Amino acid sequence: MSLATDLRNTLRDKLQQRRVQMLADLRDESISDEGTLAVRSHRGETDDEAVVESMDAVEIASTARDATELAAIDSALQRLDTPDFGICIDCGAEIEPARLLAEPTVLRCTACQQRFEHQHHTPGGARL
Ligand SMILES: [Zn+2]
User: Fold this and answer.
1) CATH homologous superfamily of domain 5-125?
2) DSSP state, 122?
3) Using CA atoms, how far apart are residues 32 and 45, in angstroms rounded to an integer?
4) Dist. CA 97 → ligand 1 center (Å)
5) What one-character DSSP code corresponds to residue 105?
6) What is the pLDDT of residue 41?
7) How far away, in angstroms, is 116 Cα from ligand 1 center?
8) Locate the Zinc finger DksA/TraR C4-type domain: which residues (predicted)?
């Protein structure tokens, strides 16, 4: 059974809104004047090299997380019109609509996600 059309439309709206938001955030934080993805360095804000390094590390991690989420949103938008969307990639069961509404980029049903996270010890609760 395929996903109900109104659920699909709701999810598309949510994904597109989030995508616009992510792009705006990335533009503010991480897109250089040349339009390439760059991590803003805190060099120049303090003379303490150790502080600069740790602040830059946080910036890099945050940009990488945003880029990963953006990729997940793009792939969810591409899958949205295929019969695979809303189907757990591990067991083939339908993912609960409430779960999709809470997190449209999820790829697995609750049970498989828990098993996956247990097996992979996903740091920081990243849900992909
Ligand atoms: Zn599953």
Assistant:
1) DksA, coiled-coil domain (1.20.120.910)
2) -
3) 18
4) 13
5) T
6) 83
7) 10
8) 84-118
- Please measure the distance between the N-terminal and C-terminal CA atoms of the chain and give it in whole angstroms: 23
The CA 115 to ligand 1 mean position distance, Å, reads: 9
Cα 31 to averaged position of ligand 1 atoms, centre (Å): 37
Position 32 scores a pLDDT of: 67
Q: How far is the CA of 114 from the centre of ligand 1 (A)?
A: 9
Cα 26 to Cα 10, 37, 108, distances in angstroms: 24, 8, 27
Residues of the chain with pLDDT under 50: 1
Domain extent listing, the chain: 5-125
- C-alpha to C-alpha distance for 51 and 66, rounded to whole angstroms: 23
Asked whether 39 and 26 are in contact (CB, 8 A), the reply is no
